Amino acid sequence: MREDLLPIGAFARACGLSPKALRLYDSLGLLRPARVDPVTGYRYYAAGQLESARLVVWLRRLDMPLAGIREVCALGPAAAAREIGAHWARVEAETALRRDLAAFLIAHLTREPAHGPGKDDLTMTELRHHAHSDTGRVRPANQDAAYAGGRLLAVADGFGPAGASASSAAVQALRFLDDGEPPADGVLDLLEEAVRAAAEAVRDAASGAGEAGTTLTALLWTGSRLALTHIGDTRAYVLRDGGLSLLTRDHTLVQSMVDEGRLTPLEAAADPRRSLLARALTGDGTAARPDLRLYDSLPGDRYLLCSDGLSTVVPEPRLRGLLAAAPDPDRAVTSLIDAAGAAGGPDNVTCVVADAPALAA
Ligand code: MN
């Protein structure tokens, strides 16, 4: 036996793994012994393998799956560092989703709204709203759909051969939310019901039509709250106290690459794959579940829902400026759609703008 080889027991003690774990990692190809005695089957490890073994221990503490650890261990230090960064970004994104869900449930179960008019005022107040969809200057047809009402705003961007029917089916399926009593309670149940209806309607509209489907971003306003459902790369923004915030996260391939640190936001904006969706409502029914979120609505909020035909060609500072300058939703929609046209209008462009009532003087 060579001088620098350690039997499995000694090596296990030195690196803080159990012999059982070392045998498992050997069988999985994570950490091969330097030598296996052909007669006894005893495993021997080189002292130089201690660093790899400790890396495995640390990666296990990060809850990295064994397949991921195998990948990292096979890489050089720089590439391994990038891979660990990507893993951690994924963990944080998954945690963020659960955090949103927890916040949603807490808000849902908290009976007293923090802001805004009380329940009795709800029948008195509605959003002032305007919606318009434009084919743009390049596309032969418009596959976007939109709806705006006193409580419901929705935008959908269809794709594939039945894209136009898919987007309008999704929006139509939500319209019942704008009828009847204002949904002061049970917004969660109501939205889930609506999302299920929309997914079914899209399946009916787009099944058998190849790779067809739609995005969907919709906002249900209760007077004191906003319930938002979202899938794909249509977007919702709020203009509040002069600042513009994005309420949705794009479900796109490039956005996940940004989250994992593989692309910068600037690179993503110029990436030819930027329109590839990671999630959408589709005809084959394999739709991922849309995001559901609940926000407080404040008096004087201005909401914008739009398709990517606006957000990819009009930068956010300009969106903010146009929204802030427009005296009412009609003129906001007109100036936004004009701005997309002036930028070449490469895609269908759809905007919904709505104002929450200001505080009574
Ligand atoms: Mn589009």
TrEMBL record:
<keyword id="KW-0238">DNA-binding</keyword>
<dbReference type="Pfam" id="PF13672">
    <property type="entry name" value="PP2C_2"/>
</dbReference>
<dbReference type="GO" id="GO:0003677">
    <property type="term" value="F:DNA binding"/>
</dbReference>
<feature type="domain" description="PPM-type phosphatase">
    <location>
        <begin position="128"/>
        <end position="356"/>
    </location>
</feature>
<feature type="domain" description="HTH merR-type">
    <location>
        <begin position="5"/>
        <end position="75"/>
    </location>
</feature>
<protein>
    <submittedName>
        <fullName>MerR family transcriptional regulator</fullName>
    </submittedName>
</protein>
<dbReference type="InterPro" id="IPR009061">
    <property type="entry name" value="DNA-bd_dom_put_sf"/>
</dbReference>
<dbReference type="InterPro" id="IPR000551">
    <property type="entry name" value="MerR-type_HTH_dom"/>
</dbReference>
<dbReference type="InterPro" id="IPR036457">
    <property type="entry name" value="PPM-type-like_dom_sf"/>
</dbReference>
<dbReference type="GO" id="GO:0003700">
    <property type="term" value="F:DNA-binding transcription factor activity"/>
</dbReference>
<dbReference type="InterPro" id="IPR047057">
    <property type="entry name" value="MerR_fam"/>
</dbReference>
<dbReference type="Pfam" id="PF13411">
    <property type="entry name" value="MerR_1"/>
</dbReference>
<dbReference type="InterPro" id="IPR001932">
    <property type="entry name" value="PPM-type_phosphatase-like_dom"/>
</dbReference>
